[in-house]
UniProtKB/TrEMBL annotation:
<dbReference type="GO" id="GO:0005829">
    <property type="term" value="C:cytosol"/>
</dbReference>
<protein>
    <recommendedName>
        <fullName>DNA polymerase IV</fullName>
        <ecNumber>2.7.7.7</ecNumber>
    </recommendedName>
</protein>
<dbReference type="InterPro" id="IPR022880">
    <property type="entry name" value="DNApol_IV"/>
</dbReference>
<dbReference type="Pfam" id="PF00817">
    <property type="entry name" value="IMS"/>
</dbReference>
<dbReference type="GO" id="GO:0042276">
    <property type="term" value="P:error-prone translesion synthesis"/>
</dbReference>
<keyword id="KW-0515">Mutator protein</keyword>
<feature type="site" description="Substrate discrimination">
    <location>
        <position position="15"/>
    </location>
</feature>
<dbReference type="InterPro" id="IPR017961">
    <property type="entry name" value="DNA_pol_Y-fam_little_finger"/>
</dbReference>
<keyword id="KW-0808">Transferase</keyword>
<keyword id="KW-0548">Nucleotidyltransferase</keyword>
<dbReference type="GO" id="GO:0009432">
    <property type="term" value="P:SOS response"/>
</dbReference>
<feature type="binding site">
    <location>
        <position position="104"/>
    </location>
    <ligand>
        <name>Mg(2+)</name>
    </ligand>
</feature>
<keyword id="KW-0479">Metal-binding</keyword>
<feature type="domain" description="UmuC">
    <location>
        <begin position="6"/>
        <end position="185"/>
    </location>
</feature>
<keyword id="KW-0239">DNA-directed DNA polymerase</keyword>
<dbReference type="Pfam" id="PF11799">
    <property type="entry name" value="IMS_C"/>
</dbReference>
<dbReference type="GO" id="GO:0006261">
    <property type="term" value="P:DNA-templated DNA replication"/>
</dbReference>
Amino acid sequence: MVSRSILHLDLDTFFVSCERLLDSRLNNKPILIGGVTDRGVVASCSYEARQFGIHSAMPMKLARELCPEAIVIKGNSATYSAKSNEVTEIIRGEVPLFEKTSIDEFYVDMSGMDRFFGNYKMASELRSKIIDNTGLPISFGLSQNKTVSKIATGEAKPNNQIKIDYGLEKHFLAPLSVKKIPMIGDKTYIALCNLGIKHIHTIQETPIELMEKAFGKNGITMWKKANGIDPSPVIPYSERKSISTERTFDRDTIDVVKLKAIMLAMAENLAFQLRRGQKLTACVTVKIRYSDFNTYTLQSKIPYTSADHVLIPKVLELFNRAYDKRLLVRLIGVKFSHLVNGTYQINLFEDSLEMISLYQAMDKIRDKHGDRTVIRAAGIEAKTISRFNPFNGDAPPLLPNRRS
């Protein structure tokens, strides 16, 4: 039986690295990427900023207090998407099977390739090619499974690489903090500490029955991961199945005219992203979060389309049904899902040649000069549209903005 060999690749401080490629003056300085207002959060930060105790998902206001000299950048998801796609295409051209788990993280199944190349040598060459072609720092861990490789990558950072030889997984994991195990969050860590378990070797020495008694099925999974056991496969990379956007307001609002204008602009922009990515959607979802943080969503199935004049009315219809006029709104969002490859099909009974020509002309201008260059007057209230995906984690548009 061929032993498994799983490579984990992670682009170091990816958003920050992309910004530094654009402006070398940012090198070696504390950088914060994320919402620029006090209500924003840190999406990414440089290692220089982390020395002040700053981490991702921290409120921007607190991060600024911890490091007043930090440079705050709103970020550009189109830029990050373009760079991520560059790395993806390099990996696609070099390996037979890989999984893209986020915009900056990949797994590669290299099982059985040792007989031809030598997996560590091939992984090193792949890493060098990514660095040489994109200018982005990247680290990797190589072992017999996903868990050990991911933890190894974390130990290799920044911009380095580690191989854990077969049979040495437990020895490598033993001295590390239990927080290094990917599934262990803050609450589980506190619970483990309360039991006197702070390092992985303690879990290794604990009978699996006791872990199950204390944590149920999660206890069994924790024990297996601590012992370097993880049979989960590398899932072949496939295209995303949804695209979405959201807007969090600096001040909660009840201005329905403004809300509808932004919803319209979101729908219009996402429809353009669909057409540019040659995708069609069959499900529209609207999301509203009120000032009390209660969140409501409504969705509707529709015939496959990427047309503004179909999607915008549906989005506004769902918004009108979901909106409670008595409450202040904190956040709104739109999501198109059930995506398939395809181009917009003309409806012989409803569409005119003039309408189709108009779409093509507007999209051509947007492709050349930016996706907000041509917009409907009703959506002009939305000066900016975030493209972070609130439904499936952070995600960029289907294709990067081609504006230079």
